[in-house]
Design a protein that fits this description.
It is a single chain. By secondary structure, this protein is of the alpha+beta class. The chain has one domain. Helices cover 30% and strands 35% of the residues. It contains two helices and seven strands; from the N terminus they run ββαβββββα. Strands 1, 2, 3, 4, 5, 6 and 7 form a seven-stranded antiparallel β-sheet that branches. Helix 1 packs antiparallel against helix 2.
């Protein structure tokens, strides 16, 4: 999977011209299933975190655009909005017009010196873990549903 990730200072409010580009990463992550795009983004951020220094956020909001290669071109795949407040980072992800907001369950602690890649990786690690847990719970519920037989007459 080939990704391009752009980090912007500020909150996206339907106008990208109001935001300032602070960093840009690109890379390819191999060996993952096509549906495991979130893990691919996290892996790219982890690799970048070890190799490059990126700026710290200037304000209390970050907007991150993730593009993924599709049909031999990079297409916008996801927007991640991160709010920074009182040492916590909270995120909402927009993908295909679906917005999912992650509140307390994935609020992660951030330090004043954390750069944009550190913050994005911490938030997406938490989102990925929540997604994995949700998938596991759904799988377990389905298997329990198949194994439990209830006879209404016995109730």
């Amino acid at each position: 999977m080939k990704f391009e990730i752009e980090f912007y200072d500020g909150e996206y409010v339907s106008d990208m011209s109001a935001l300032t580009l602070s960093a840009k990463l690109s890379g390819t992550v191999e060996g993952l299933a096509p549906a495991d795009f979130l893990r691919g983004i996290v892996v790219l951020l982890e690799m970048s975190e070890k190799r490059y220094a990126t700026p710290t956020p200037l304000g209390s909001a970050l907007t991150i655009l993730v593009r993924r290669k599709a049909c031999n071109r990079l297409a916008l795949f996801m927007r991640i909005d991160i709010a920074l407040h009182d040492g916590l980072a909270k995120a909402s992800l927009s993908c295909d017009d679906n917005v999912r907001t992650f509140d307390e369950a994935v609020a992660v602690a951030v330090s004043k010196g954390d750069d944009v890649v550190n913050i994005a990786r911490a938030v997406l690690d938490a989102v990925y873990e929540e997604r994995q847990l949700s998938t596991l719970v759904e799988s377990r519920l389905k298997s329990v549903g198949r194994s439990v037989k209830i006879n209404p007459e016995e109730l």
